[in-house]
Specification:
Number of helices: 16
CATH topology of the largest domain: Rossmann fold
Largest sheet: 8 strands, mixed
Strand order of the largest sheet: 3-4-2-1-5-6-7-8
Distance between the termini: 21 Å
CATH architecture of the largest domain: 3-Layer(aba) Sandwich
Helix content: 40-55%
Radius of gyration: 21 Å
CATH class of the largest domain: Alpha Beta
Length: 394
């Protein structure tokens, strides 16, 4: 009997693992670690993308790079649009038969089409996780006509052949249902090792790095800067709060968009009340959470909301929107409509003024995060799904 028959081998395919791409670059390694803990052998195939016009420096291309319990194969991207990589496609065609299941992450990507077609041709079951791009907001506000054409001509025929569509929330599943994809929908939430967020360091490191926050209440936004995150609405709402409060915008995006946000902040008279940190990680990120009084994620659309989950695990009182799936399904998050800046301002002000309510919400948020979204829970659910689709293969 071959070792392959005894040990499940799973291939994950994603266009980019760059931190510049936000949540997906953190969620996929967490999945791979969770699966390795379940005894699953995991490989990941991706490109060397590191954001627009950039490539990851120092990564070996076409060779296995060992990470925490799994391997990653990087291939050169040859275009920015769709992140086309012909070497990635050649590798998939040559090696896809070596795996029991293929798990593809995102839609409207060359990697998705290449992986789905290669798996279908080799009769290897594949699962697609759309990463929220099939949500109503993304289909309407992101290259609407191009997406509509691509979906009909290229993407839907591949998605229809998938063994399952992996959604991370019921909200994401329900919004995608209108598109009529034939593949079976499955809802499996993400899970992470959240232990570090339950043991926050002192706020000193953040306060020393950004002294404008010293001695003031802090509203923290921590996420990638992108139009769907609704930072414009957050700035407008924050302008209605007391001048004694500072807003920390911890994230990075395309330079032109960042400049436009900073100009809007200045136009609202917030130049001395908004701290732009850029992307922060590690201990400084944890220290920023320790300094925060309230966390806010005002996105129009999120298929899950990893930044919100981290803030919940850190015990922060959180304000978010109905468009963020994790918030919509949580009993421990204050929710407002994304386009209601008055309500957003009102809820932030209410929490800033009520230490008891902040403590109550923060404790409830931490309990929910640690109870429902662990690595073990996600790993077990994914393993069970893979076993199901593998044995259903005809």
């Amino acid at each position: 009997m071959r070792l392959h028959a005894l040990i499940m081998r799973v291939l994950h395919v994603i266009p980019s693992l760059s931190p510049s791409q936000g949540g997906p670059s953190f969620a996929l390694p967490a999945m791979a670690r969770a699966l390795s803990m379940q005894g699953v052998e995991v490989d990941v195939v991706t490109t060397d993308d590191d954001g627009p016009g950039k490539c990851l420096a120092g990564v070996a291309l076409g060779q296995a790079v060992i990470r925490e319990g799994f391997r990653v194969f990087y291939f050169p991207k040859q275009t920015e649009f769709y992140k086309v990589s012909l070497p990635l496609r050649r590798w998939l065609r040559a090696h896809v038969r070596e795996y029991d299941v293929v798990h593809v992450h995102t839609v409207f990507s060359f990697a998705t089409l290449a992986a789905g077609r290669a798996a279908a041709r080799a009769r290897v079951p594949f699962i697609v996780r759309p990463l929220g791009v099939l949500n109503r907001w993304g289909m309407v506000n992101r290259r609407r006509w191009l997406k509509s054409l691509s979906f009909r001509m290229l993407d839907k025929p591949v998605l229809d052949k998938a063994a399952a569509l992996h959604f991370t929330s019921k909200q994401e599943r329900d919004e995608a249902a209108a598109l009529g994809i034939q593949a079976r929908p499955v809802v499996l939430p993400l899970g992470f090792d959240l232990g570090a967020f339950g043991r926050l360091p002192l706020a000193d490191a953040f306060l020393d790095a950004f002294p404008m926050s010293m001695g003031r209440q802090v509203v923290l936004f921590l996420s990638r800067l992108d139009p769907k995150k609704n930072v414009e609405g957050l700035l407008e709402a924050f302008a209605q709060l007391s001048s004694e409060v500072v807003l920390v915008v911890a994230g990075a995006g395309e330079p032109a968009y960042e400049s436009a946000l900073k100009q809007k902040s200045a136009d609202l008279g917030l130049a001395d009340r908004v701290i732009w940190t850029g992307r922060i990680e590690g201990g400084l990120k944890l220290s920023a959470m320790a300094a925060a009084s309230v966390f806010v994620l005002p996105s129009y659309s999120e298929n899950f909301g990893i930044a919100l989950l981290e803030a919940m695990a850190a015990g922060l009182p959180c304000v978010s929107t109905l468009g963020v799936a994790l918030a919509a399904e949580s009993e421990a998050v204050v929710k407002v409509a994304a386009d209601d800046t008055a309500a957003l301002a009102r809820e932030m002000a209410r929490l800033l003024a009520d230490a008891g309510e902040r403590a109550r919400l923060g404790a409830a948020a931490r309990e929910e995060a640690l109870d429902k979204y662990s690595l073990d829970t996600m790993g077990g659910a994914l393993h069970a799904l893979y076993e199901e689709v593998r044995h259903a293969k005809t």
